[in-house]
Amino acid sequence: MARISSRTAGFQESVIRRMTRVAQQTGAVNLSQGFPDFDPPQPLMEALRRTAEKGPHQYAVTWGAANFREALAQKQGRFTGLPIDPESHIVVTCGSTEAMMAAMMSVTEPGDKVIVFSPFYENYAADAVLTGAEPLYVPLLPPSFEIDVQALRAAFAQGPRAVILCNPGNPTGKVFRRDELLEIGRLAEAADAWVITDEVYEHIVYEPCRHTYFAALPGMFERTITCGSLSKTFSITGWRLGYLIAPESVVQAARKIHDFLTVGAPAPLQEAAVTALQFPDEYYAGLKDRYARQRSLFLNILCDAKLKHTEPEGAYYVLADISEFGAPSDTWFAEWMAREAGVAAVPGSSFFHEKEDRYVRFHFAKKEETLIEAGRRLKKIRELYRPGPTRPKGA
Ligand code: GLN
Questions:
Q1: Dihedral, CA atoms, 51, 56, 62, 68, nearest 10 degrees?
Q2: How is domain 58-278 classified at the CATH fold level?
Q3: pLDDT, tens digit, for every residue of 169-209?
Q4: Which atom of ligand 1 is nearest the CA belonging to 232?
Q5: Which of 67, 215, 271, 355 to pair with 179, CA 20 to 30 A apart?
């Protein structure tokens, strides 16, 4: 057999996506991969129907259709207070997954160091391996996920090219405070490093927390690459519409990468999504309310099931502590839970660089009835539980 490139040897297949397949095979309620089971907003679906009739059905401009970039610049300008230029500051990508990869490829050389807070969304490790960058992991200390400031300073002292910041955080639910962000900004400035942000949950933040856009901090626009998406904000994860917003020099590089990787994000979906980007402020208030209700319903469900858990400040993930079960591993537990208890979650270890298998991650971007059904099943979890193979010594 001809050889397989060693490029993919340094990371594994997505555990999140694997758990969705396990959920499908076992018929479990899928609270693993974070995506809604409710419809996108009606006016957006109507816009999609209209677009099916009138097009466009051919390529858009590779870095994004002009009307989409215009609407996006206005929307992000409104929320961030920044003068975002649709011509020079935006690349529209296939989801923020591509935006993050394009950002990393635009600013790192192979061998460069990149700071990643741990726990982290699993794509970042793969992004680092694929770009040849070396991740420097900085712990966010559970249960409140405060930054390990010593470790952060030590990591910046190693001269990293960039720091990746997921805010609001997946899987932590952490909404970084302004003082924490200012400190990251000061360190990035001193090290002359880029700040690559993943802000796909910008509109899913719970009272009294507020989202602070990193690029909008004083002097930070010039050093920030903001990656965002329409997936979570408009409940359209399958449309794969994301973007990066950055200073012109980064955009020039990212456009080339994007052009040769994917040519462009789907033209008809960009056209339809202009409608969503023009939604008024009430839409965002409604989205917040909806998720606040789902959050409190799901946290109550976990309390009823007597599962210890984190309380997210933003995004829609909860880490539940499963250490009391003494399972052989969190992966074993997650698979057992999908199969026997009928609820799928993601083993927490896939988000941590440190050896940590105390958690499974649930998400609550689901209809009330789906969450209630999951709750009914979770309530029986202790009754059903049979310890698996003995936990290996010292594990
Ligand atoms: N961001 C979502 C999650 O963490 C979906 C991930 C994905 O599969 N793209 O579950």
A1: -40
A2: Aspartate Aminotransferase; domain 2 (3.40.640)
A3: 999 999 999 999 999 999 999 999 999 999 999 999 999 99
A4: 1
A5: 355
Note the pLDDT tens digit of each residue in 139-155.
999 889 999 999 999 99
Residues with CB under 6 A from ligand 1: 16-17, 33-34, 121, 170
The helices-and-strands tally (H runs, E runs) of the chain is 13, 14
Helical H runs in the chain?
Answer: 15-26, 42-54, 66-80, 95-107, 123-131, 149-156, 178-191, 248-262, 267-277, 281-304, 330-336, 368-378, 381-384
Q: Tokens in use for 218?
A: 């004083």
Q: Looking at ligand 1, which atom is closest to the CA of residue 121?
A: 4
- Consecutive H or E run containing 317: strand 317-321
How far, in Å, from the CA of 394 to the mean position of ligand 1?
32
For the whole model, what pTM was predicted? 0.96
* Start-end of CATH 3.40.640.10 domains in the chain: 58-278
In 3D space, the residue among 368, 308, 379, 307 whose CA is nearest the CA of residue 342 turns out to be 379
pLDDT in tens, 107-123: 999 999 999 999 999 99
- 8-40+282-382 is classed in which CATH architecture? Alpha-Beta Complex (3.90)
